[in-house]
Every structure is written in structure tokens, then in C-alpha cells.
Amino acid sequence: MTVYTAFFPPTSVPSPDSRPIKIGVIGAANIAPIAIVSPAKNHPETVLYAIAARDKTRAEAFAKTHGFEKAYGGPNGYQGTPLLLRENLLIILMSCEDLLDDPEIDAVYNPDIWIPQFFVPKLPNGLHYEWTMKALAAGKHVLLEKPSANTAEETRNMFDLAEKKGLVLLEAFHYRFHPAIQRVKAIIDSKELGAIKHISASLAVPKGVMKPGDIRFDYSLGGGGLMDMGCYTLNVIRYLSSSNPTAVISAEHNHHVPPGSPTSFKPNVDRGTTATLALPNDITATLYADLRMPFNYGFIPPMPRVSTIITLEGGDIEIYNFPMPTLYHSITVSTKANNNTVKTRVEKVYTFADAKIEGKGEAWWTTYRFQLEAFVDRIKGRTPQTWVDREDSIANMHWIEQIYAKVGHWPR
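Request: output the structure for the sequence above.
Response:
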């Protein structure tokens, strides 16, 4: 029932005491319903105001299905930006000038984008900077997909503009807003198991989930395993340790080589990345991210890796499925006893009440719904339950750059 309600939540009654935030969504994408449509319908202070798509018919159909008031699309809704990609594939990345120019829209969300015969999993990383700057310049608050940009400098520039214009800019590390990961951090901070010694964070999927031609493998558009799944693993290490790395001890890439590539092919983007980091107080951390894990024995697909393990002086904590805990997760706490035995308990945390932490929410709220609650609170001048601030986003991008530099890939 919890999972069903997460995907099909009840519609909230609009709050009579608060002007609703009108949301514009760029791209009539498959991920939009769970990432923004359902959360916004369930929030009493948000309205799904406008959707933009390259095809006006698709935009209108999406608007009708999901309850948007307006639809933008077609030649008047976009300015096509042609980019020649692999094998002469021409992708028209939409600009949504009409949507950004609509004075009724308060906030913009950049979700996945559908383009005929090609599925772009999200606005390409290499375009985050351009379109966030345009949205901010147009006076819109922005919920920004991660990674925030191609470089830490671009990230800093975006937050500078947001602050100059008095706008809210949030990098959408949605898992941070869920009580499950906050419960893990609370256990660590309580010192129940002593000091942290090591953190290992993994996020990887088997070959076949993402096709060889996926846009995540396009270097020119900010592709790469570290940029995609790796940004989560780095972020969770930094979050749980309450610190930034002090050095990249080692880093290794598994380069993406498309099937059938000639022997002369020179790979320039990582399919997967493993890195070991030094953190303050003699803590070390290892991250692993892979967009196409090879099959075992050449034919057995490996299980997805979605865990973070924290090794402490007095035991270990493992959170399984930290990115999407509403669907399923477990927090396993193993405590070393004096007689060399280990006591283990398993926690499931779906609400802040479960975590004994102050905060709003229901057991069926997704990470995206918790995130929207914080985003709206900040726009309304309230203090959100948690937040990802500018320094957090800049630091995450900086250390992504440092990991790339360790293996000889310099900033884009």
C-alpha cells in the first residue's frame, strides 16, 4: 500500500492562507510524474502550471493527463539547439523560451526529456549551467538536477546569480530529504558506535539497463559514470562524515567503449569509477559507480549495488537502497560486544517519527515529496527540515573534478 500510494498519492486541498507556487516543467518526460507531478499535486502550496515539450501535441496531451494549466511546444515554444552526436544523430534540445518568459511561473524544474527515437534520461549535465542561468535570469526559482554543472566554477556562478536575484536554487539530491538517511546520520552522530573509520558507497547497475548509446556516455554533454551515479556516492560520503575529502588517494576508471568500436577508438568517458578518498580525522572512504557492470562469467547479470556501509570503532552500519528508500530499504546496525560477539538490529525508517527526528511527512512520501516540501518551505521564507546549500553543491562538484584529475581527465 505504501508503494502504491507513493506513485498515486491523494490530491491535496489548496491552502487558503498561502499563494500557490506555480511550477513550470521543461520536458514531457517519463520521470516527471514521480519526480514532480505527484509531489506537486499532493502539496497544498503548489500548482502544476505549465509543461513544455518540443512537440505541441505531446505537451497538450501531457498537460491534460497530469493536470497542467498550460502547454508550450512547437516552433513558438522552443528555439532548437542542434547538436551533432554519434553516427550523425541529430538531437534538438529544447529551449523553452516561452515557458521561461511566462510571468505566472514561479519555479522551474528540469526533469527527463523525451526526444523522438531517443530517450534522454535528464537534461544533459553539460546543459545544466546554461538553462539554470537562463531560468534564474528570467526570475524563476530552480530545482536543479544533479550534478549541478560540469565544473565547480559553473556551480558557483549559478548560486551567485541566484543570491543576487534573491531566488532559491536547490541541487536535487532528493535522498538527503528522506528520514532513512537522516536516521543513519543520527546514529553516527550519537557516537553509539564510536568514531567513523571508513565509508564505502556504491551505486551501480548491470550492463543492459543503460544502452551503449545512452547520452550519459557522451563526454561533450557532461557524461560519465562519476558525473551520473558517482555524484550520489560522493555526496553520501560527504554527508555522513560531515566533512569534505582532504585528498584523492587513488582513482581508476573503466572507460566506456561502444560495442563494435575499431581498435583505434580512444575512449574519453568513464563507464565506471572507483576512488579512495582521505577525509579528516584519519577517515578513509571508497566510492564505486558503474553504469554498465559486466556480467559474471560473461552471461549472469550482477545485482544492482545501492548500499552505503559505514565502519566505525564499535561496529558497522549499512543502509541498503539509500537513493529510493520509500520503495524498500533497510538499515542494519551491527555492534561489537565485549566478548567478541556481534549484536545486529535492522531498522526501517519511513517517517521522521520512526527516526525520532522532528519533521513532517507520511510513510508513503517519496524522496521527491520530502524534497519538494523543503523547496517550498525555502521559497515561502520558512526554514526547511534539511537543505543542500551552495557550499555543499560547490564542494561536491569540486571533488568530482579532483577525482577526474587523479586519472588524468581534466575539467570540461
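The first strand starts at residue 21 and ends at 26.
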